[in-house]
Amino acid sequence: MTESISQNYASARDMRAKLDSGNTTARELALNHLQRIQETEKHTNAFLTVLDEEQLVTQADAADALIESGNASALTGIPILIKDNISTDGIRTTAASKILDGYTPPFDATVVSRLKDAGAIILGKGNLDEFAMGSSNENSAFGPVINPWGQNRVPGGSSGGAAAAVAAGEATIALGSDTGGSIRQPASLCGVVGFKPTYGTVSRYGLIAFGSSLDQIGPIARTVADCADTANTISGRDPHDSTSLDLEIDFAEYLDRGVDGMRIGVPREYLVEGIEPGVRSAFEASLGVLEGLGAKIEETSLPLTDHALAVYYIIAPSEASANLARFDGVKYGMSVDGEPNARESIEATRGIGFGAEVKRRILIGTYALSAGYYDAYYKKAQQVRTLIRREFQDAFQEFDALATPTSPTVAFELGEKTQDPFQMYLSDVCTIPVNIAGLPGISVSCGLSDGLPVGLQIIAPQLGDRVALQVAHAYEQSANWKLTPPEL
Prior knowledge:
Number of strands: 11
Strand order of the largest sheet: 1-3-2-4-6-5-10-11-9-7-8
Number of domains: 1
């Protein structure tokens, strides 16, 4: 691995130290990453938009000036990718859908504004499953993302571009969104770290909505510490988002506390039928590491977990059917002209603009919300959701955190599950309950199975984000899995 590529695989904290000591500059980092993107994109297809050299140098020079003045923050000069369902002023934002091809927002999402204020360098926009609906990043209208760990392997979804870019050294950090596991599952499959904060700690303003009660923006990075630093930068109350919480959390505060004396529960329901033997083995080994660090590991039960998948696939499509009604070809995005009336023009636009998975979920959601079925489906799902939340609350009366596999499988082959939506949906069986309950969760690498990464998921109570990061950091530092994919 050449020195410039090796530098691209450094953590943000290591880059911060080099920037502050004068051993590198933001301009050098930006140009190194641009070169890496140019060399690697033919293998990964992780980016939908890449900013040009002039745009990157402008950002980098401003970051270098901040560093020179002594006003640098944790992310000043750090190269970051933004998932393409997060609005960026003046930069194309498509949500990987034909219906938004060519759309350029006139404003930044709050998280993007906060990154810019911190002096971070925005590299471009990351590929994803269309409107964040998918578990393999094969649903993008602009082609699938390829996992850098194998040229016939999926990166996971929907934040597959974000995870693949970080894994391939194309970006140091990426912002993703997580509705049912879309940060943690691709992080697991690509061998990086993915953190979903507590619902409400990070503003959703500027995020193209999928499931409004489930969506959460969060970071994908190489280390737990980098995720904590990013969360510190993008979190906090936002008057543009009524669901954002008015509180301050130092996400990095507990990182070095270790896990000695902590009680960590292992819900038996998450070791689901169909979990791959190599995943189970790596997960069990990770529990041994935590136990060796002084944690008390005990089996527990969350029986309502078995209903979480059904609950999610009623609530999420229902919210999606309402949120995606705005894409009608009238205000923005593509429009099919020449139809005899407005209704038929809208139908034609949506028929051509939306992909198969998005149409499937809109139809499911519309059916669940329709007259005569609302009480039987949507209302019942919300009632079970409340029970799932209470079950987690009861578990956290006994345990400081819960540990599960992030995904029941390693990265599967392209096309392997596209003809069986149910099997694809099962990819998120371990991550979906966290979104249903609005909890924080983090995936950290815990080894390899058949040469492909496996993820350990740590779940903490609501607003227990620092605890999740604490446990994940302790494991990461002890196990020392520094996974780098085969050179592309």
